[in-house]
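TL;DR need structure tokens for one chain.
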Amino acid sequence: MADLGYTTLILALVFAVYSAIASAVSVRNKSPELAASARNGIIAVFIFFTLALEIMLYALITNDFDIKLVALHSSEDMPFIYKLTALYSDKAGSLMFWGWLISVFAVVLTFQKRRAFNGIMRYATGILSIILVFFLVLVTIGLDVFEESPTSVMSGLGQTYQHTAMLIHPLLLFLGFAGFAIVFAFALGSLLSGHNSNDWTGAIRRWALFSWCTLGIANLVGAWWAWDVGNWGGYWAWDPVENAGLMPWLLATALVHSIAIQHKRGYLKPWTILLAVFTFVFTLLSPFITHGGLEESPLHGFNNSPVPPYVLSFIIIILAGSAGAIAWRRQYLVNEAKPQSLISREGAFLFTNLILVLIVLFVFFGTIIPGLAEDLANREVAIERDFFDRTAGPTLLVLVFLMGICPLLGWRKSSSALFRHNAIFPFLASSIATMVILISGIGNWYALAALVCGFPLFTILQEWFRGTRTRHRTKGENHLLAFLLLIWRNRPRYGGFIVHIGIILITIGVIGSSLYPDDFMVNVMWAGGSVLLLGAIIAFWPERQRKVSTPRLA
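>> reply
TL;DR here they are.
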């Protein structure tokens, strides 16, 4: 069985290499036949990858302990569901599952966009084929996922964390990571093809939202596991592996905003491309860290893995190739619409991106410096959680406060009088909440957090109130129906507001739980995650295309 599984992976690798070559030649020769053949190659990769995965799952179910993965991570008395999830408890199995998800998404994208974005898809197919080649090399050459067990095992060792969160966390994590491979390939394909229109951002927006949402929920579920089981000092201890999941999510948050603003206003084109590249690159940092590049903890990482050099080499290839593409098509990025003033909603989006990137830099350097110091200078450097709390923490509060300012600004240019008028209610309401907290003696720091978090919360409530009142007056709907239809008829905008409320609740829960060791504040954080998921679903839900009637000529 091990030989059959390994053979199917080798066949998938052969077809991935063929698809990459066929895509490159089809672009050079402008051959639609070769482009179609490259797409068929992607389908073949998916088929053989799926066969290999099915063989491994069958081995886990039937207790085939001749395969090392099964012997180490499964056992005869293990519950059925944990036998299946033992796949991603292994260093090679987790990469196999991640690569297989990319093959699934690549086939979906191929059928979804092959006609409307034929030019982009020729490049995107080649890029996805190269990514699949990388993952298939990892699980066949770097790590043999079907490696036979060196010793005879009768019942299996069953070294798998059996917790509900660990059934969900890796699945959502790899779904998010795989989705960002699709976003990266399509974004870079649009750049390489010289696609001048901004319509491609609308085509990839739902992929970005889906990936952002699944990765965000994955981080929250991982935090739940840490809170319920782990002994690292709470739900979040700035562990290198936790940071490996947080950094691409923060970059993806900026990416989702950039896609929205480019699609709506034709602004932030360079940001969209750069963020698509670096979000994907930072997803690749996860296996680099967990497989021993920075983290040697057996609780959170895979020890003695040969993967880090492969991953680092691929990251360098991705960065070099992306830099070459940007240099080649730089004129496409320069030609974009710009606002009349940075004191505008476009400017607020730009500042949001800058703050998110700044937070990622804080977390990135705090994560890699200890490992670099040990490897390069042969000295031990410890960066405690205080560093992250004092750098990333306040910057996150600035980001939350900025969430309240953005809706108060106008497009292109905003007048100070309009901003003052819109900001009166949110400022007064959040100030009153702050004074109540100060008078009650809860704590000065928590009062500051209430001021910062209250401002965007009351801004959102104000926007909802105004929109509901307008619908009530103009359409005669009762207030509840007007409120519900307000959200449903403009799902991207008001779904985004709900997402922001979720982030505000998470922020309040994080700050409150650090001040007061009470499960109530942790429950506030989980409630925020649920609200965030609801908002993402609303924003993600497809909008019905409205038919535009054309007047008939007499």
